[in-house]
Design goal:
4 helices, elongated, about 55% helix, single chain, mainly alpha
Length: about 110
């Protein structure tokens, strides 16, 4: 697969404050642009360094290597599920809690 480098826009999430992150205010300009016209690749923000596939892949590989060594010591099979939960569990759990709170507490209580 050929990788092309494009002139991406600075990602406002990198400098967003806590309230802007919580309420997704940093995303507002893109959300306002969407209804006006079809979004193009050039409209998208650059990926944060910690979200790049190279960074995530290295972390996953590091945790997998650790799991393989641990499993070999304990004479059992390494478990990919355990590694995935260790690597990505916190972020998915936080996202899940956020969505749950929006669904559960965001509903209007009609009689």
């Amino acid at each position: 697969m050929e990788v092309t480098k494009t002139d991406s826009k600075h990602n406002p999430l990198a400098t967003a404050r806590i309230l802007s992150r919580m309420f997704l205010c940093w995303l507002t300009p893109l959300l306002h642009l969407g209804p006006k016209r079809r979004l193009e690749e050039s409209d998208m923000y650059s990926v944060l360094p910690e979200d790049r596939s190279e960074t995530l892949g290295k972390e996953l590989q590091r945790l997998w290597d650790h799991e393989v060594k641990k499993a070999a010591k304990e004479l059992e099979k390494p478990k990919l599920t355990r590694v995935l939960i260790k690597c990505y569990g916190k972020s998915y759990a936080l996202a899940g809690l956020f969505v749950f709170s929006q669904v559960y507490f965001g509903q209007s209580k009609l009689p």
